[in-house]
Amino acid sequence: MPEAYLYNSTDQKDITNGNVSLGGFNGYLIVNFLRHLNGTMDILSFANHSDLMMNAKRLAGGRYIDAGANFVTDQSMTEYTSFIGGTRYCIVVPSAERLPLEDYPKHLMHISVHLFLCFVILVNVMLKRIAYPRMSFTAILYASLKVSMMQGISCREFRNLRSSDKLLQVFIHLYNLLMTSLICSKFIRLFTLGVYEPEIDDVQTLVQSGLRIMIFDDEHIRIFNDIELPRNLSDRLLFVDRKEFEKHFFALNRSLAYIATSGHTMQLDYVQEQLSRPKLRIASSQLCTVYQNLRLPIRYDMSTTYFVDSFIRRVQEADLFDKWMKMTLLHARKIGLVTQAPYEPSEMLPLPLALFENLFVKFFMGLTLSFIVFVIECILSFWKKRRTARKYGKNHNDIA
Known about the structure:
By secondary structure, this protein is an alpha+beta fold. The chain folds into 4 domains: 5-88 and 291-334, D-Maltodextrin-Binding Protein, domain 2, CATH 3.40.190.10; 101-193; 201-287, no CATH class; 361-393. It has 14 helices and 11 strands. Helix 4 (111-131) packs across helix 5 and helix 4 (111-131) packs antiparallel against helix 7.
């Protein structure tokens, strides 16, 4: 969306003396200033941006040009142009996508937590083996797992433990309570806020993403160098015209990164206003240039220069810039210069049963293993009883 544009309307007939009106943020600024002075204006167009940069220093069509309708950053105009605000170039990157629910359990506990739990069980087994040398290894392992799974023991059993084992039992239970609280809180946070891919916030993550960077002007080569990006990213620059750039940028194409100005990013925020989560975002300050002063070009010998500065200060104090920007976006949407992304409600998905599939599989495997062990024990018990019966039967026959 341009900073200023013309459209057919009689809304500003008192200023333009016709059915042509000046729109855009700068249009509102100039029109309101002329109404403040009770003045009028004639609108002249320029062929290209280079003519616009020089419009405050020369004649056009035999007439003096009092003010330009587009911002400039020309430092040579500092003494006689009004400062409006700042702008900078930033790289706009896709927002991190939300991971599927099936990947959530992987982020629930770090591998170090599992290793520490195994270490606690091992220490418990070693201490019990030393403290109770006559106790079978199976019984020791079962007791250690029982404590690690927060299974309590009776008071009588606790009193019969050795002092070292009592201390170990107490501290393991405290550790288990702490871990249970942490896991529950993290479990709630994961399913409330979601888990997302790593964000692109610096040069390294931008390189790893493999995104191509779209540029719509040769001047952005200098901007690209000012951000001090590595030279290997220069091969990823994609040069297009402004129309093609805005087509992909405002269509929220997530397969590209973009170098955009503050004006583009403000319009981007408006386009994504109805989305539950923005699809594109501004990267960190590491991927942005320094701020540049935006000035409204004014003829250096214009008698009303002082009044322009005074008017702009009063506008800034009244916070009218934000109001005019919102009015600009609403009007641009009305005439078809800006289109908002369709309304996207927040995702409130129920937890599918498939998310707990692994737990049910492990539970079924445990039941199957228990049944197999039970069958084996029955077979061994039957074989031992039969062998004992044969042995006693043979001895009885020998005595007879």
